[in-house]
Design goal:
By secondary structure, this protein is an all-alpha fold. It has 14 helices and two strands; from the N terminus they run αββααααααααααααα. The two termini are about 45 Å apart.
Length: about 290
């Protein structure tokens, strides 16, 4: 055995835990989902091949189409708001203000709370009668909506809950903001640019790769939203928050239609993949990379 072969074996030995974990916990489940999407499989009996029947059934499934629509509405609200709010606070926390470190910790802490605990907390905060949010609104003589009992307010409530935990995105933005050369701001000031001018012409172009990254991650998270609506509303009221992942979960673990759920998972992957490719195509013309 040559030294090169010995070196390759050592490398593979060190990589083997990751390789085994990837095969067992990622590659095999993905391959199984693709296979089961073409089968009738209720877990209790061996899977039976049914071809494209699961996909044909989805096209006529009203609940599936409804879950796709309400998920799209949620994503259309959550994606831009999450990006704007996290970028706003990142720019704010990047300024030289008193207690900046303390404020950074405060804004990041909510993202460390487990999603299940976050759902329980916000279920109490958004309670129509006893919730603290409506209590504050009543003190300010502002109409207090029935957040979790109204089809008009349930999805905005879910969006608000998600935005509350954008600390991770804020930290990523902060790291990018601190890498923007100060000389560019100084040049912009000499040219007469104010605060908003510097943000528009210097900050946003320089951190555009990070904006693109957060956009892709937010798209994925929004289309896979599950824990918060599952705990707070369980898909109600009137299925207004019965998002795609909730219906997928119900098919798999309540109705034991594992093949049907696998077909839903494949469709969700294709939707996310398509949106990611479209975003990447647009970003190739809009994103500025310093190395280029």
């Amino acid at each position: 055995m040559t030294n090169k072969q010995k070196h390759i074996l050592k490398v593979l030995a060190f990589l083997s835990p990751w390789i085994i974990g990837f095969i067992v916990f990622q590659l095999y489940p993905i391959a199984s989902s693709v296979y089961y999407s073409f089968c009738y499989y209720d877990i209790l009996r061996p899977p039976g091949f049914v071809g494209l029947d699961n996909y044909r059934s989805l096209l006529t499934d009203e609940v599936f189409l409804h879950s796709l629509i309400v998920t799209g509405i949620y994503a259309a609200l959550a994606i831009p708001l999450s990006l704007i709010v996290s970028l706003f606070f990142a720019i704010l926390l990047n300024q030289k203000i008193f207690g900046r470190g303390m404020f950074r910790v405060i804004y990041f802490l909510p993202s460390l709370i487990p999603m299940a605990a976050l759902g329980v907390l916000w279920k109490w905060v958004l309670h129509g009668e006893h919730g603290i949010l409506n209590h504050i609104l009543r003190l300010l003589h502002i109409p207090a909506p029935n957040w979790l009992g109204s089809t008009a307010w349930a999805t905005p409530a879910m969006v608000m809950t998600g935005i509350w935990a954008v600390g991770g995105s804020i930290v990523i933005y902060l790291a990018a903001l601190q890498d923007v050369p100060k000389s560019l701001y100084e040049s912009a000031e000499i040219d007469g640019a104010g605060f908003f001018g510097k943000v528009r012409h210097v900050t946003l172009p320089m951190i555009s790769p990070v904006i693109y990254f957060n956009l892709v991650m937010t798209i994925i998270a929004s289309l896979q939203v599950f824990v918060i609506p599952y705990i707070i509303t369980e898909g109600g009221p009137a299925r207004s928050t019965y998002y795609y992942a909730l219906y997928l979960f119900d098919n798999a673990f309540r109705f034991l239609r594992m093949g049907y759920a696998s077909a839903m998972a494949i469709i969700l992957f294709l939707i996310i993949f398509t949106l990611t490719m479209v975003t990447t195509k647009i970003a190739s013309k809009k994103v500025y990379y310093a190395g280029k």
